[in-house]
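Internal ticket - ligand job 266, zinc ion:
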Amino acid sequence: MTPDQGIKVTILGSGSSPGCPVIACDCPVCTSGDPRNQRTRASIMLTFPGGQHVVFDTATEFRLQMVREKVHNIEHVIYTHTHSDHCHGFDDLRAFFFRSREPISVHATREHLDDLRTRFSYAFQNTGYHGTKPRMNIHEITPGVPFKIFGIDVEPAAVSHGDTNTTVFKVGTFVYATDFKAIPNELIEKWRGKIHTIVASGLRMETHPTHSSLPETVDVIKKIQVKQGVITHLGHEIDYQTVSATLPPNIRLAFDGLSVVCPLVL
Ligand SMILES: [Zn+2]
Ligand SMILES: [Zn+2]
Ligand SMILES: [Zn+2]
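stdout (structure tokens):
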């Protein structure tokens, strides 16, 4: 069901880089019977009022996510960064070319496009035969320079994430920010009071050298003063039910398949 005056935001995957359950882990969350603790790698999809789809990243389980959500078309893929958990589903983009015979628009910064070319060199070489690789129109993103998708402004910004930058995106009144160590104050000021819905990463309760922790992300969401916040990219330290009970009423944890609606204007 597509909302007439809003963007539907679907959590395709809510997990951190190992996913959950983690291979060979017998911890209470990995062995829990709660399906909300079963997390594929982090990705979201926006459904626009016309039924068009934009996905952020092609996570490791991209194929399973597309099958689960019964997605028949993707018009744009926007990469936050190219750590393995965010791009290793890349090859399955070809399924959409087989169906539509239209190339998919792929957006990433120069740094991340260079990395995609290294990781998936076969897809960027002209072999004259397109049957075995994704067909793409490449768009280079420059942080700080907005672009439009389906008439809506997309504003990318670069934030630090350890050995790479990650790109966070404001799309109308929505923000997707994953895999950041911290959101700079200038960005918080810029977004404050203008965001209806944010989906932001919050790995675990304890601090981490390259990721924002869950309490740090709650703090950022409070400062931006959003209507609704969803915390994603969750590690196996986070039990859905236990941690959910501790959150403020307008902030919730993501789970695979969760969808929320964000209005086009506040
Ligand atoms: Zn990640
Ligand atoms: Zn575990
Ligand atoms: Zn990352």
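Auto-summary: Residues 17, 42, 83, 85-86, 179, 233 surround zinc ion (ligand 1) (CB under 6 Å). The first strand starts at residue 6 and ends at 13.
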